[in-house]
């Protein structure tokens, strides 16, 4: 009996030790406070402003995917829309674009910073660095999944406005949103394209954030070998810009098939088709390649400047740039 009792005590003590160790990890002070995360939210929203400015490129890229016969190339597409509708036509869907990417970018950066800190704290000081790749990927994926739910209604509205022939669908934001709600069953509004949206955004954001963190890490390890804080803010922001373009280009390639699918779903031809039927009709090769060149150029530039705007705001707020060792 004494021996059995000792074994039980030993097992109980081991469980209590593991429980205390688990609680101790959460007892560690999280690296940042709520004020820090609130600034990250603001910086994330501001970072999406580059997408507002480039609405014409986004609109033509979307139409190249949905109407390739009328819009075979980016330059000719811009000329066609300008000739038919003027500057206003180039900025069709601007209101929905602002809301779509404000929700997406703000939520994404906000939750990424929170989850990265939380997962690092959970892993503990000994393991946070060793498992940092897993932490980057998991934090980015969870953050993007939440952001996509908030983004979906506005993205569907944006794509519908941009791909509809002039005069067939309201252009102004208010009337277009009313039309989307009125025809919500046929258009599958507000979450009909959530699956393809997550299919586009989730791999793209994981690739974006992971690649960004790794490129920054490599630059501060092999190129700028002094502690990060010893370099000037312009130098640090240059690193951000370079890493952002690389990560944006990688994200564009990975997410392009799903992006093409979202554009095609807005076409009247495919409104009653399932995703599988659209893929069979168009083909995976076209989904992966049609409009890819302009999208790499656009997405690489956009994500590069998104990171730059985000890190510039963080720098102004005294928070430092993202990634790398101090």
Automatic annotation (TrEMBL):
A single GO molecular function term of this UniProt record: phosphate transmembrane transporter activity
Alphabetical UniProt keywords: Membrane, Mitochondrion, Mitochondrion inner membrane, Repeat, Transmembrane, Transmembrane helix, Transport
Solcar repeats mapped onto the chain: 35-118, 131-218, 235-316
Membrane topology: Multi-pass membrane protein
Gene Ontology terms: biological process: mitochondrial phosphate ion transmembrane transport
Main location class: mitochondrion
Annotated signal sequence range: none
Keyword Repeat: yes
One Gene Ontology term, aspect cellular component: mitochondrial inner membrane
Keyword check for Cell membrane: no
Compartments where found: Mitochondrion inner membrane
Family: Belongs to the mitochondrial carrier (TC 2.A.29) family.
Name under which the protein is recorded: Mitochondrial carrier protein
Organism of derivation: Phaeodactylum tricornutum (strain CCAP 1055/1)
Lineage: Eukaryota, Sar, Stramenopiles, Ochrophyta, Bacillariophyta
């Amino acid at each position: 009996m004494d021996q059995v009792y000792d074994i039980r005590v030993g097992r109980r003590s081991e469980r209590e030790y593991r429980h205390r160790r688990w609680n101790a990890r959460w007892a560690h002070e999280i690296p940042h406070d709520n004020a820090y995360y609130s600034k990250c939210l603001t910086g994330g929203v501001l970072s999406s402003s580059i997408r507002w400015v480039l609405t014409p490129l986004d609109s033509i890229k979307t139409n190249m995917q949905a109407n390739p016969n009328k819009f075979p190339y980016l330059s000719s597409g811009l000329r066609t829309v300008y000739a038919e509708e003027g500057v206003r036509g180039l900025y069709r869907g601007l209101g929905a674009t602002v809301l779509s990417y404000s929700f997406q970018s703000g939520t994404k950066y906000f939750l990424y910073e929170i989850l990265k800190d939380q997962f690092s704290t959970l892993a503990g000081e000994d393991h946070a660095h060793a498992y940092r790749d897993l932490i980057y990927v998991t934090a980015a994926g969870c953050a993007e999944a939440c952001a996509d739910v908030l983004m979906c209604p506005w993205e569907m509205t944006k794509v519908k406005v941009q791909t509809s022939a002039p005069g067939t669908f309201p252009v102004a934001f208010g009337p277009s949103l009313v039309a989307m709600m009125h025809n919500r069953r046929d258009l599958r509004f507000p979450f009909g394209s959530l699956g393809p949206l997550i299919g586009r955004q989730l791999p793209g954001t994981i690739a974006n954030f992971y690649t960004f963190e790794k490129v920054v890490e490599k630059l501060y390890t092999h190129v700028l070998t002094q502690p990060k804080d010893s370099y000037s803010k312009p130098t640090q922001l240059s690193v951000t810009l370079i890493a952002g373009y690389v990560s944006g280009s990688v994200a564009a390639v990975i997410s392009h098939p799903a992006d093409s699918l979202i554009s095609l779903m807005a076409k009247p031809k495919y409104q009653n088709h399932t995703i599988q039927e659209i893929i069979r009709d168009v083909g995976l090769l076209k989904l992966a390649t049609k409009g890819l060149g302009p999208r790499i150029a656009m997405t690489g530039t956009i994500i590069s400047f998104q990171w730059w705007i985000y890190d510039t705001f963080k720098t102004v707020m005294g928070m430092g740039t993202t990634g790398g060792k101090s």
